[in-house]
């Protein structure tokens, strides 16, 4: 029988230091076959849908879901499959690409801050402010040549990044203190599986549109990215805003685990339908009376 998803096994921080190389990219299948996978995912999607409806109606909490991953790990597909069917009134998805000139004129948290969820809503960030300690770490010219920071700040890059980690931790703690649940996913893909997926994009005409020559260039920085991800997770995995490092070599496993985490995190908020007071009950009774009188 297929295993049941256990979100806690992939949750950080832990008592021991986080090492990305020791985190699995593949685990035993959580499903028996394709039909079993779909049934398991549908059950969890229905629960997410119900919890999101209660969250929206209650209007007390917000939820921020962050996805980070290397190229081809499957962020888009995971978001599509897991959140499919969620009421669009309570869900916002933001994909953060190359910053605009307006965004570059602001501090590094600005463009994701303006996309934070309001109470009652779930906001999904496909990539996020973490790019500022990931892509920028691998390509320091983004800091020195594009972001146009004061020269005094860029003289000591290690100090600059430690300051960014501190700012991220502070903001996430602030969000949690004010009723926003912060759920962070790193979809952990192996280098060999990324190779296979890039080859599939090249070999399959229906996937040609997904392929960009820049993907191979970025693959050349694999080790630097792995180091940057490891440090980012080490520095920002807190009790208030933990990271979930999800094995991503099997897309179905990955989606089941992400859905299981979301169910667990939303349950912890314990959203409920708003209580109706006496005045509202009287209004409901009067409304029913008027509608029935139309007969």
UniProtKB/TrEMBL annotation:
GO BP: polyphosphate metabolic process
The keyword Disulfide bond belongs to this UniProt entry's keyword annotation: no
InterPro entries xrefs: P-loop_NTPase (IPR027417), Polyphosphate_phosphotransfera (IPR016898), PPK2-rel_1 (IPR022300), PPK2-related (IPR022488)
Coiled coil: 27-54
Keyword field: Coiled coil, Kinase, Transferase
One family name in Pfam for this protein: PPK2
Record keyword Nucleotide-binding present: no
GO MF, any single term: polyphosphate kinase activity
Domain Polyphosphate kinase-2-related: start-end pairs: 33-268
Gene3D superfamilies xref list: P-loop containing nucleotide triphosphate hydrolases (3.40.50.300)
Superkingdom assignment: Bacteria
Family in the record: Belongs to the polyphosphate kinase 2 (PPK2) family. Class I subfamily.
Classification via PANTHER family: POLYPHOSPHATE:AMP PHOSPHOTRANSFERASE (PTHR34383:SF3), POLYPHOSPHATE:AMP PHOSPHOTRANSFERASE-RELATED (PTHR34383)
Protein name from the UniProt record: Polyphosphate kinase 2 family protein
């Amino acid at each position: 029988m297929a295993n049941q998803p256990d979100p806690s096994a992939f949750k950080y921080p832990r008592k021991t230091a986080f090492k990305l190389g020791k985190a699995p990219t593949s685990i035993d299948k959580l499903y028996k076959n394709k039909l079993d996978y779909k049934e398991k995912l549908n059950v969890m999607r229905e629960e997410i849908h119900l919890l999101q409806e209660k969250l929206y109606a209650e209007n007390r909490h917000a939820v921020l879901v962050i996805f980070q991953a290397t190229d081809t790990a499957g962020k888009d597909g995971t978001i599509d499959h897991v959140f499919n069917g969620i009421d669009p009134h309570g869900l916002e998805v933001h994909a953060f690409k190359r910053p605009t000139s307006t965004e570059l004129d602001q501090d590094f948290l600005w463009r994701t801050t303006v996309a934070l969820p309001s109470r009652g809503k779930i906001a999904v960030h496909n990539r996020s402010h973490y790019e500022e300690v990931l892509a920028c770490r691998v390509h320091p010219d983004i800091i020195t040549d594009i972001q146009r920071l004061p020269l005094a700040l860029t003289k000591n890059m290690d100090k600059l990044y430690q300051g960014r980690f501190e700012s991220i931790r502070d903001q996430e703690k602030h969000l949690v203190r004010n009723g926003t649940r912060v759920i962070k996913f790193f979809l952990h893909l192996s280098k060999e599986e990324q190779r296979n997926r890039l080859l599939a994009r090249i070999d399959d005409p229906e996937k040609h549109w997904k392929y960009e020559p820049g993907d191979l260039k970025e693959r050349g920085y694999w080790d630097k990215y792995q180091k940057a991800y490891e440090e980012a997770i080490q520095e920002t995995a807190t009790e208030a805003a933990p990271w979930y490092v999800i094995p991503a070599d099997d897309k179905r496993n990955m989606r089941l685990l992400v859905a299981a985490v979301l169910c667990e995190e939303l349950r912890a908020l314990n959203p409920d339908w708003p209580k109706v007071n006496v005045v509202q009950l009287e209004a409901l009774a009067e409304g029913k009376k008027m509608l029935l009188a139309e007969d």
